Amino acid sequence: MLVEKLIKEHCLSKEEYIELLDNYTADTMEKLRVEADRLKRQYYGDKVFTRGLIEFTNYCKNNCYYCGIRLDNKNASRYRLTEEEILLSCKTGYDLGFRTFVLQGGEDPYFTDDRMVEIIKEIKSLYPDCALTLSIGERSHDTYKRFKEAGADRYLLRHETANEEHYNKLHPENLSLKSRMECLYDLKSLGFQVGAGFMVGSPYQTNETLAEDLVFLKELDPDMVGIGPFLPSHDTIFADCEKGSVEKTLLLLSIIRIILPKALIPATTALGTADPKGREKGLLAGANVVMPNLSPVTVRKKYSLYDDKICTGEEAAECQGCLTRRVASVGFQLVSERGDVYRD
C-alpha cells in the first residue's frame, strides 16, 4: 500500500516513511527499483553523467567525528594542490571527455575567498563549456555570491542528517544543523544547482532520522542528492562502528529517485567501496552519475575520509576506462556532457 502511494504521489509522511523502512522486503525493493529506473529513463534515458573529482586539499578546520581528515587527526598526511596542479587535473579530465569538474576539499582556511575566486575564474576561462562544482563546506552568503559571480555552477553540501539531536552526535559544538540548512538555502537563492545528502547507517541513525531526511529532501528540492553507506575511518571515534548497509542504501536511492524524479544522483565511491558491484547496483536502483577521480595519483590515498577507498592507485584514464565498461555492463552509457539537471 505504501509502495503504491509513494509511486503515485512521489511523497509520504514521516510516519509512513518510518513504516516503509521498518517493514521493507525484497519485493518492496524491486517494485521501487523498477519505478526508480523508469523515472530516471523518462528524464535522462540511458545516460550516465561523469563528474571529474579533484580532491585539492585534505586540510580541514573542522572536527566532524566520522571524518578521516578531521582537524585533530594527527596521522593524516596533509597536502594542498597548487593552482597549476588543479588546472593540470582539469586538462587531463577535459582531454578524456569530462565536461564537469568537482573541486572538493576540507574546509581549508588557506583557500581564502580570493584564492578560490581566482581558481574558479581560471578554470571557467580555460573550459567555458564545462560546469564547475564546488564542495568546500560552509561559507557565508556573500562568499557563495562571489563564487557564483566568478563562474561556479553547482555546489555540493551534504546536510548529513535533518535531525538536530543526531547532527550533534556526529559533530562538535561549533557546528550546527541550523547553519548547515541556512547554507543550503543560501545556495539555492543564489541560483546554484545544489546538492545535499547523507550517509546511510551513520552512528546513532534510526529509521526515524532517515524519514526526516526524506521529508527534508522533498522540501529542499535539491538538484543533486548524494548518499552512500557509512564507512568508518580508523582514525576517528567511530572506528569500530558497523558499516552502513548496501541494501538499505539501494532502497533509499530508489526512494529518492521517486520523490525527486529529475535529480542527479551519484552511484558513489563509498557504494563501490562497500560492495565490488556497488556502483552498478546503484545505477540500476536509480542513480545516474559517477564521479571518477582526477586528482594526481600521488595524493589520492591521502584524501581518506574513510578506510579502504577504491581507485586510489589508478590514473584518470584507467579509472575512466574501467567505469565505461562497468556502466555498459548494466545497460547504460557513459556520456561526455555537462549533465545539467533536467528542466521542463
UniProtKB/TrEMBL annotation:
Pfam families: Radical_SAM. SUPFAM superfamilies: Radical SAM enzymes. Its cofactor is [4Fe-4S] cluster; [2Fe-2S] cluster. Residues 46-262 form the Radical SAM core domain. InterPro entries: Aldolase_TIM (IPR013785), BATS_dom (IPR010722), Elp3/MiaA/NifB-like_rSAM (IPR006638), FeFe-hyd_HydE_rSAM (IPR024021), HydE/PylB-like (IPR034422), rSAM (IPR007197), rSAM_sf (IPR058240). GO terms for biological process: sulfur compound biosynthetic process; water-soluble vitamin biosynthetic process. [4Fe-4S] cluster binds at residues 60, 64, 67. This is Biotin synthase.
